[in-house]
TrEMBL record:
Its cofactor is L-ascorbate. Gene3D superfamilies: q2cbj1_9rhob like domain. Residues 394-499 form the Fe2OG dioxygenase domain. This is Fe2OG dioxygenase domain-containing protein. SMART domains: P4Hc. GO terms for cellular component: endoplasmic reticulum. Pfam families: 2OG-FeII_Oxy_3. It comes from Thalassiosira oceanica. Residues 1-23 form the signal peptide. Keywords: Dioxygenase, Iron, Metal-binding, Oxidoreductase, Signal. The keyword Metal-binding applies. GO terms for molecular function: iron ion binding; L-ascorbic acid binding; procollagen-proline 4-dioxygenase activity.
Length: 520
């Protein structure tokens, strides 16, 4: 399900480019405050190529704003504390400021995270031979929290003087944010770190001294699937009490990424879900901006994913758009065991706070959820694949959702406008939604499709199937639906069938934590 768009609450500035920064992982440069200037939008495009570039700029800027919103949320220690927060600490003495290991840290393991006090997008407008010597035409789009950091950046859009560290964040195509940044030759994503701010446990990146090949023992790299979040990673085994020193080079980068993903997969996966939410919100915002000009008439949609129309008990409850249901898709025993399996592992879902625009927990409007490994529910998976005519590798990770009294899910669609990369699927889209009610709800908690005025009352074991996009990856906005407030607890098992198989190893089923020994 897609999240509600984030409301903009952060100050955005455009500034003259300060200069080039090493684009390699972990490369950053000291930068003093440079006067910034607010500018209007770019001059009207004179060619179709420039128009396309302008569109990319808009998408990338929206992505930067949403990504920073999520990063600001994650850096609140009241809401999230990295599991590696105790790996190192800051020591200030006569010798200066040092970051020192509090325990032994193995090679490839996370030492700390790199703080993000602002997030920016550098748009390279100079070209040819002049690009290296003259970058005055380049611009920077910077987002920061005016309430938290206005004293460092200025509240009127003018940057104040002061020491800053800028970290370029390279994005490979596996990063969800990469698809939103447009042409990598034109757009450079970077974060800003303010050393004068108080150090936070777990967020000590940027405070290490720079060493050489013999003294350096750490490097900064983007978290796999969770950039712009970056981790400082040990390049060799580090002993307790040893100072953490940055490497000038990037040794064995791919191997270090692999070790990091394996060792901290659960944490990185959780952080990646937040980043994906920001990316998905960006797509929704861009799609909404283009809705009038890009809208596809329902008569142009199709064909849709072909499910098994001979599945026992399948019945059509609405035609065009087609919506189906299956009574007793899951037995009462299966429903109860799935609830028991997921219950101890439920975690809060995040939504947008309309008052301040931040992504945070809101008990009045959110559900809780838990991911269920396919290997723990083989019978359920056989039913899903038989019904939807698909292989297991096209099925998104199964989720159990719980809505308590009064909780709801605002109107949304499950599809995307065009190819999208998320949850281990690359350049694909969701073709089919399948959800099953795991309990009876006496009052409230219905699933309502407002575009077709269809209201479905929860019934234990009943599955509902609809199609958020056609096989040409065009979203069907008629499938807009919402979870109405429940007066009783409502439990759901939900998943989505994608056009193409899941290919990203870091989202593999084998990486999901085991819930219990009950095989359903």
């Amino acid at each position: 399900m897609k999240m509600k768009p984030l409301a903009p609450v952060f100050v955005v500035i455009w500034a003259a480019a300060i200069g080039s920064v090493d684009g390699l992982a972990g490369g950053f440069a000291k930068v003093k405050g440079t006067p910034a200037r607010k500018t209007g939008s770019a001059a009207a495009a004179k060619t179709s190529a420039r128009a396309a570039a302008s569109s990319d700029d808009i998408t990338a800027k929206k992505a930067v704003s949403n990504l920073f919103s999520v990063c600001a949320h994650i850096q609140d220690l009241k809401l999230y504390k990295p599991t590696w927060a105790d790996a190192c600490h800051q020591i200030v003495d006569e010798g200066g400021t040092r970051i020192v290991a509090k325990r032994d840290i193995r090679r490839g393991h996370a030492v700390t995270l790199f703080p993000i006090h602002s997030l920016g997008l550098r748009t390279i407008r100079s070209d040819g031979r002049k690009a290296r010597k003259n970058r005055e035409s380049d611009t920077e789009f910077v987002v920061y929290d005016v309430d938290r950091d206005g004293e460092f950046f200025g509240r009127g859009g003018d940057e104040r003087a002061g020491l800053r560290l800028k970290l370029n964040i390279p994005l490979d195509r596996k990063q969800p944010a990469a698809a939103l940044m447009g042409d990598r030759k034109r757009h450079v994503l970077f974060s800003t770190f303010l050393p004068q701010k108080s150090a936070q446990p777990g967020w000590l990146g940027g405070r290490m001294r720079l060493g050489d090949e013999s003294t350096g023992n750490s490097i900064t790299i983007p978290l796999p699937g969770a950039a712009p979040l970056c981790a400082v990673v040990a390049t060799r085994d580090v002993k307790e009490g040893e100072e953490i020193i940055r490497c000038a080079s990037r040794p064995d980068l791919e191997e270090l990424k692999s070790i990091l993903a394996e060792e901290h997969g659960k944490d990185i996966s959780m952080l990646g879900m937040h980043v994906q939410m920001a990316c998905q919100t960006t797509l929704e915002q861009v799609g909404a901006d283009k809705a009038e000009s890009d809208e596809i008439h329902s008569s142009e949609l199709g064909p849709f994913h072909a499910i098994n129309l001979n599945y026992p008990g399948l019945k059509m409850i609405h035609q065009d758009p087609d919506i189906y249901s299956v009574d007793d898709f899951l037995s009462a025993d299966e429903c109860d065991r799935i609830v028991a399996k997921a219950c101890p592992h439920l975690k809060p879902c995040l939504v947008n706070n309309e008052r301040n625009g931040r992504v945070e927990q809101d008990p009045a409007r959110t559900s809780t959820n838990a991911n269920v490994p396919q290997v723990e529910v083989p019978t359920v998976m056989r039913k899903i694949t038989d019904l939807t005519n698909c292989s297991p590798d096209k099925v998104e990770i199964l989720q159990v959702l719980r809505y308590k009294k009064g909780q709801e899910f605002v109107p949304h669609t499950d599809g995307f406008s065009g190819p999208y990369s998320s949850c281990g699927f690359v350049d694909s889209t969701r073709l089919c939604t399948v959800f099953c009610y795991l309990n009876d709800v006496e009052e409230g908690g219905t699933t309502y499709f407002p575009e077709v005025d269809l209201d479905i009352r929860p019934k234990r074991g009943m599955a509902v199937i609809h199609f958020p996009a056609d096989v040409e990856m065009r979203e069907d906005k008629r499938t807009l639906h919402q979870g109405s407030p429940a007066l009783d607890d409502k439990w759901l098992l939900t998943t989505w069938v994608w056009k193409d198989p899941r290919t990203e190893e870091e989202y593999g089923e084998e990486r999901l934590p085991k819930l219990n020994d009950d095989i359903i």
